[in-house]
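Appendix B. Raw example, untouched.
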Amino acid sequence: MTIRGRAALCVAHGEPLTVENIDTRRPGPGEVIVDMDAAAVCITDIMSLGGMTFAPPPYIPGHSGSGVVSAVGPGVRHVNVGDRVAATGTAECGLCYACLRGTPSACEDIGAGMFTPFHVATRSDGNAVTADLGCGVFAERMLLRESVLAVYDADITPVQAATLGCGIVSGLGAVFNVARVVPGATVAVVGCGHLGLWIIQAATLAGAERIIAVEPDEHRRSLATAVGATHVVGPGAGDPVAQVKDLTGGRGVDYALEAGGTVEGTVQAYEMTRGAGVLVTTSMARPEDRVTFGALDIGVSAKEIRSSQSGGGRIKRDVPRYARLLERGVISTEHIITQVFKLDEVNAAIEAAEQRKVITGVVTF
């Protein structure tokens, strides 16, 4: 028996999404049905829709959303019917080699969802529908693995909660779990969009003394200041690396966090990191992209390079904490959620993200 609902489908890369009825299958072992309330749109979705995905069309895009559990399959341990949950683009199964060794950011379920087609539903013509990253959430009702879900009980809106599974968990986690920023530190954030603005808020919470936002777009620089940046740097005033070093006595920053999604941004972040400082990369660049560092510098500078996969990936611990920070107003979506769209407007939401007309668009169901 299946459950019918509407979903946005990518039927071919480069073509508009179609909104149509699909029949979601019943949950199997370790699987859950979530009645979705809202889903955030970010650059990862744009890259997937451009062909950077292993999900065969037709598939449901989206990897960060909020909803309520309506059914659970056999063996589900951590969620119950009626729970409010955030769906994330990462996973935490708690049982694999990585999870048992305290590194769930490398959970084997991430790869299983990313590289193995995950059949979630059928179209009216009987053809199978898969899920991008194993976590397609642009749907009224979605079949998800328990490993990509985190339960929260904070009093926040579904639209706010839609950002928990990507921007918030990745941005705050990059600061708290990966960089481990300490009070009084100097921090540079390269790229001030969907992810960078969350990183700035987290650096403020961590007690950073100086937070330097590096961003070419003037409007986004103003948003960076609004959420906590103490200084802003743009290319119009000269080389960003030189500007950052000028602001730090010529040394560079203690922590540089790259959130721009470009090779150039990663190199700049490395170059503005002081000796023995920490570079955190979060970039969803293309697989063929390559970053080059000077061999002597990387050999003797004592800099640390840390990769941040969804902010450390401890979603079942961190997402409820971050939801409570939202509830208390310690962090805010005010300057980050730019526009809310209906499901039938999903292509407008995609275009707005692709054209950088929004920081974060949210689709509601």
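End of appendix B.
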